[in-house]
Amino acid sequence: MILIIPLFGHLLTSILILAVPNLPRRELLFGVVVPVDFRSSPEGRRAIRIFRCVVAVPAIAGLIAIALWGSRSVPVVTSMAAIGTSLAGALTFVAMNRKFKPFAVQPQSVRVFELNAGRERLPWFTWLGLVPLLMLLATALYLQANWDSLASRYPVHRDIHGTPNRWADRSVQGVYGPLLFAAGVAVYFFGLALAMWYGSRRSEPLRRPMVGFFVAIGWSFALMMAGVALGRVIPLPVGVVAFAWLPILLGAGYLIKKSNEPRDPDPTPDECWKGGMIYYNSNDAALFVARRYGVGLTSNMAHPWSWVMLASGPVLIATGFLVNRLL
Length: 327
Hints:
This protein is mainly alpha-helical. It has helices at residues 4-18, 42-69, 74-100, 131-145, 172-199, 207-230, 238-242, 246-259, 304-326, and strands spanning 28-29, 32-33, 153-158, 164-169, 273-274, 278-279, 288-290, 297-299. The chain folds into 2 domains: 4-103, no CATH class; 124-326, no CATH class.
C-alpha cells in the first residue's frame, strides 16, 4: 500500500511518454512533417514500435525498482526511474527526428510570420484567471476570522507512511505564507495566458485552448492550497481536496482534443527545429508556435522574452521561499 502512489505516478508518466508519437497531429511524426498516411505505413509503424520498445525498458525497470527498493528511499528511486524513462524517450525522439528529417515534406514556398494586427479582445474566460486570487483572499479572511480555532502547531507534510515529518506554527508565516505563494503562482499563470494570446499568431488555432489551460492551472493550484489551508479549521474529505484537479484535467483534455484537429500546414521552417523539440528562429517574430511534439504551444528560443519566461519560474519559487521566511 505504501508504494501505490509512486508506482501509479511512474506508470502514468511512462504511459504519457509512450504516447508521444500519437499526441501530435497526423502530419507530424517525431517532429517531422510527413504525409498524413505515413504514420500507418510500415516505416511509420516500425519507427513508433522502436520508440516504444526503447522507452519500455527503463519504464519497466523503474516499476521493478520502485517495487523492490522504493520503501527504503521513495524520492530517490522514483526520481531515478522518471529520469531514466524521460531521458530514453527524449534521446530516441531526437534520433528518429534525424532519421526522418531528410524525407520531410517540403514546406510551403510562402511562409506566414505576421503576428496579431490591430487590437483583438481577449477571450472572455481569460479574466477567470483572476478568480483564484479572490479564492485565496477569501480563505485568508476566513482563517483570520477563525484564528483562535487554529491549532498552535500542525503538520504540513507527511512521509510515505502518513507520519507527520514537518510542522508549522500558528503564525503569519505558517498560515498565510502558502496562500501568498499560491497567489504568486496564480498571477504567474495568468501572465503566461496573456503571453500566449498576444505572443502567438492570430491564425494559431491553439491560442484559445492554451489560454484556457493556463487559467485552469491557476484554478487547480488555488483550490488545492485553499483546501489545505481550510483543512486546518474544517475537516475536509479527501474527495473534496481531490476536486481541485478537475479544472486542470478538463483544460488538458480540451487542449489535447484541439491539438489533434486538422489545421493549415505548419508555417515554421524544418531547419529551425532542433531535434524536433526546440524551435529557434530569429527571423520569426512569434513568441509561441505550435509544438511538433506533444500538444500545445512552445516558445521560440530565439526570442529574448523566451529566456525571461524561462527564468521567471525559478525566480517565482525563490521569491516565494524568501517571502515565507521574512513574514
